[in-house]
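Title: Comparing notes on inverse folding

I've been comparing how different people in this forum approach sequence design from structure. To keep things fair, I'm posting one structure and asking everyone to reply with a full sequence. Here's the target:
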C-alpha cells in the first residue's frame, strides 16, 4: 500500500474515533443531566429529605393557660438601727444576718468599758451616801444632834446625790449611744459589713430588721381568677406552700399589686426572698391543638404545611381560636393524628 492510501486510511480512522468519542461524550452528558434531575426530584419530592424540618402531630386533649406572678417576701414591720456616736471602735456583734431576734435583745456594742466603770463607781458612791444618811438620821434621833445641824448635813448629802445622779444619767446616755438593741421581734434582714478595727459613724445603718406577718408582694396585669381570700400555690426555696390573696392595690404602669400571706397563718422559715405564685386562668377541655411554630398567617387567614402523598410540601387553611402557652386550639381544617410541618 502506497503512502497516499495509508494517509487516507489513518484519516478515516481518526474521524471514526473522533465521532465515537463525541457520541460517548453526548451519552455521558445526558447521563449527568438525568442524574441531576433525579437528585433534584429526590431533594424536593422525597420525605426523607425533610430531616431538618420538625414533624408535629395534631393532638386532642386538655389545655390550660397559667399566670405566673413573681413575688418577693417582706414583713409588715421594718426597722433600721444604728449607733448614736462617731469615732468609737466596734466591740462586739451578737447576731448575724438571718437571725431571729426579740425586742430588747442586745445586738451589738461599741467600746465603752471606761464609761461603765465610771458608772459603777458612782453607784457605789450613791450607796455610801445612803448609808451615811441613815447614820445621820440615827444620830439626830438618838444622840441629841440639833435640828439645824441635821438639816444642813442632810442637804449636803442630797446635793451630792443629785450631782452623782446627773453624772450617771450622762454616762447612761454615752453608753446607750454605744449599744444597739432590737426594737421589735423579727429577723435581721441586712447587716453592715464592718471590721472590729473600724470606727463608728453616727447614723450609719448597722442592722435592718423585719418583723410581723410574712407577706409576698408582686405585680400582674392579668387579674383573671384572682379573688381576695382565694388560696393559691407559692413555690419558694423549691417547696410549694398554700398562700391566700390578702389584698390588691394599684401598681405601677397600670399593673395591679397583689399581696399574699401564708394560708395557715403560721411563720415559715425561708432562705429565699423571691418565689412564684402559679395558678390556672383558663382551661380548654377535649380540644384539638397544634404548636404555634406550625402555623403561618396570611392576612386574616391561618395555614399549615404538610407533605402530600407524592411527598411534596402542600399548604392547608385552618381555623384557630384561643392560644394556650405554645399551642393553638384548632377549630377546623385538621383532624387528630394528622402530621404537619413546623418551620
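Reply #1:
Here's my take.
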Amino acid at each position: 500500500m502506497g503512502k497516499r492510501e495509508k494517509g487516507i486510511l489513518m484519516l478515516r480512522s481518526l474521524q471514526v474515533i473522533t465521532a465515537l468519542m463525541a457520541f460517548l461524550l453526548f451519552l455521558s452528558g445526558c447521563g449527568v443531566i438525568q442524574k441531576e434531575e433525579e437528585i433534584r426530584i429526590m431533594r424536593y419530592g422525597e420525605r426523607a429529605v425533610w430531616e431538618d424540618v420538625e414533624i408535629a402531630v395534631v393532638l386532642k386533649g386538655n389545655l390550660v393557660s397559667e399566670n405566673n406572678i413573681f413575688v418577693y417576701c417582706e414583713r409588715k414591720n421594718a426597722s433600721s438601727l444604728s449607733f448614736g456616736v462617731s469615732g468609737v471602735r466596734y466591740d462586739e456583734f451578737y447576731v448575724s444576718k438571718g437571725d431571729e431576734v426579740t425586742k430588747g435583745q442586745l445586738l451589738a456594742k461599741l467600746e465603752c468599758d471606761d464609761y461603765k466603770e465610771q458608772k459603777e463607781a458612782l453607784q457605789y458612791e450613791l450607796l455610801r451616801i445612803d448609808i451615811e444618811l441613815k447614820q445621820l438620821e440615827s444620830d439626830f434621833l438618838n444622840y441629841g444632834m440639833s435640828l439645824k445641824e441635821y438639816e444642813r448635813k442632810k442637804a449636803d448629802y442630797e446635793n451630792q446625790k443629785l450631782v452623782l445622779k446627773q453624772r450617771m444619767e450622762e454616762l447612761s446616755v454615752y453608753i446607750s449611744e454605744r449599744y444597739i438593741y432590737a426594737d421589735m421581734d423579727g429577723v435581721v434582714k441586712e447587716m453592715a459589713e464592718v471590721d472590729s478595727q473600724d470606727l463608728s459613724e453616727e447614723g450609719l445603718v448597722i442592722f435592718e430588721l423585719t418583723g410581723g406577718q410574712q407577706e409576698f408582694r408582686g405585680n400582674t396585669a392579668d387579674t383573671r381568677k384572682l379573688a381576695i381570700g382565694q388560696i393559691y400555690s407559692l413555690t419558694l426555696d423549691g417547696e410549694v406552700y398554700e398562700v391566700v390573696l390578702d389584698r390588691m392595690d394599684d401598681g405601677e404602669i397600670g399593673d395591679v399589686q397583689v399581696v399574699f400571706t401564708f394560708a395557715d397563718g403560721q411563720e415559715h422559715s425561708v432562705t429565699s426572698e423571691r418565689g412564684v405564685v402559679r395558678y390556672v386562668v383558663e382551661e380548654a377541655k377535649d380540644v384539638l391543638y397544634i404548636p404555634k411554630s406550625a402555623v403561618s398567617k396570611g392576612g386574616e387567614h391561618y395555614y399549615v404545611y404538610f407533605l402530600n402523598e407524592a411527598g411534596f410540601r402542600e399548604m392547608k387553611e385552618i381555623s384557630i381560636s384561643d392560644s394556650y402557652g405554645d399551642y393553638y386550639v384548632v377549630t377546623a381544617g385538621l383532624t387528630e393524628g394528622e402530621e404537619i410541618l413546623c418551620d
